Amino acid sequence: MKLSEREKKLFIVLAILVVLAVPYFLVMSPLFGKIRDVQMELIDLKSEYKELTALQENSDVYENATEDLRKKTQELLMRFPEDLSQEATLMFIQNAENLFHISLYQLAFGEEVTLQLAQETETAQMNGAELTEAGTYSAKSTSTVFTYEASYNDFKRFINYIEQFEDRMIISDLSASYMEETDQVHGSFTLIQYAICNPDRRLPETMVGLELGSENIFTEAEGKEVADTELFQQYDYFVMLCNAQADIDAKIVGKANDASRQSYLTSTDNDKETILITFTGSAGEYRAMYSIGDKQYPEESIEEGIAFTAGNSLDLQIISSPRIGDGDHVSADLELVNQTDMTLHVTIINDDSTYPRVTMKEMTGDIKLHNK
Predict the structure, then answer these.
(1) Is CATH 3.30.70.920 the classification given to domain 79-121+135-205?
(2) What is the domain partition of the chain in residue ranges?
(3) Would the pTM of this model clear 0.85, i.e. be above it?
């Protein structure tokens, strides 16, 4: 078959078109696709650059907001203890009984409830994978049922004490009966305590110093002597140190079981003060005199002191409390003088394990220190 000149020219043109098309589809077209992808990526990078530039320009605002949120978080956490323990509850009961002369003579511990807290989740993109950091905080609560008896005024002060207490707690159920003849209130209430737990938050060890009770209730009931346990069945005088934000005075010295509180000497200063306590006398007739800084009791006859009758032993209890922050400076240098014919037994309970409030500066006479 012989091609005409016209057909030959058409075949030559077609061959040229094929030669030009093959490089385009094999080389140029993918290259143009990559160029489009790079242009789209460049647009995204420019947008991200603008966002980061805006963040950088307002970095001080974000840093201040972050610090403010951190402080508020810490303030919120300070309202809750690091954990819950029955030992801490028992010490709360004893301190309340000492402060308000309320009798909490029955209690029943409930079950502990734990709830995982939902913390705001931080999400990030890394190599196409979504990374999520979950919160590690958990909340605990426990309920305790108390049966109580107290005077009307002490009962009101006790309720206010719970409301203002440094650790978060509420009364969920309360019953009260008032006897006008004796001005006594009795009943029961349910106390719910809360805590926020985290591996970085550790509950300080509770210094348990419960004096009441006996090593063997059966031998004591039979009238037999129990060696050394009578030392801790009661105390004659007490010193109490509380945090400056508590709803009671920071420092209190007084006679135990003094319903009138006339023997109380107090101070509200949020700093360290010297507390001097002197006991004198013999043969069952004893006197006490004490001072906090420049204050003294008895105010008009400090040298004569106030008369009291000791039991089988002469006991002084020092009730301290854990510190609640850097601004809590309540503390005391104790100077004790025993000029009696008995041994003075001093018991320190619930002091801060890291920064103790109590410093035994000087002890003169026959004095024994317990549970420090």
Answers:
(1) no
(2) 79-121+135-205, 207-372
(3) no
Q: What is the pLDDT of residues 45-62, one digit of tens each?
A: 888 888 888 888 888 888
Q: Has residue 231 got a pLDDT over 50?
A: no
How many other CB atoms are found less than 10 A from the CB of residue 347?
20
Can you tell me the distance from the alpha carbon of 113 to that of 136, in angstroms, rounded to the nearest whole number? 17
